[in-house]
Specification:
The chain is an alpha+beta fold and about 180 residues long. The chain has helices at about 20-35, 150-175; strands spanning about 50, 55, 60-65, 75-80, 85-90, 95-100, 110-115, 125-130.
Length: about 180
């Protein structure tokens, strides 16, 4: 009987290892070191505030808005109106808003409006509000001031005609 050998297959030369994993690990370690050494920055941009309209008469109302506070509260102070607390306009609290009424005895001229994120001691932004002379427009909201007497007469005639037509239809229906 011939002797069988339990020989192993011929050995192959070891494959050279790729340098890619080593380079990837080095790059990851470098990124971690840079990230650890970098100072933390705030996730929100610098606040931006606005007053609308930018000019108002004593007794008039203005809308107050600030974005980028990063808080769910802010307050607004001015010599033109009482302190106002702003509330979030969306779930992320990136937009805070409120309204203010200009004092009826406010001095005409430019008044500083200061927004404070989170309340006293928070980040501040200031804008200007121009208080004009005269009283605030009320009642019709200023819509009549830009209409001519002829336009007002035509509108009134149409309204009266609609009223008379409505009464006529209702009386006819009741008689039938």
């Amino acid at each position: 009987m011939p002797a069988t050998s339990l020989a192993q297959p011929p050995a192959t030369a070891p494959r050279p290892r790729s340098a890619a994993p080593r380079r990837l690990m080095t790059a990851a370690a470098a990124a971690l070191i840079v990230a650890a050494a970098t100072p933390v920055t705030l996730a929100h941009a610098a606040p931006s505030a606005s007053v609308s309209p930018t000019a108002a008469a004593p007794g008039g109302r203005v809308a107050l808005n600030i974005t980028g506070c990063g808080t769910k509260a802010a307050r607004v102070t001015s010599t033109a109106f009482s302190e106002v607390r702003l509330t979030p306009g969306n779930l992320e609290a990136t937009n805070l808003f409120g309204n203010a009424t200009v004092f009826s005895n406010a001095n005409p001229g430019t008044h500083r409006v200061t927004f404070e994120c989170g309340g006293p001691g928070g980040e501040r932004v200031s804008v200007s509000l121009q208080v004009t002379t005269g009283a605030a427009r009320g009642g019709t909201g200023g819509s009549v001031g830009s209409m001519s007497p002829a336009q007002i007469a035509v509108g009134g005639t149409l309204a009266v005609g609609a009223l008379v037509g409505g009464v006529w239809v209702l009386r006819r229906r009741a008689a039938a």
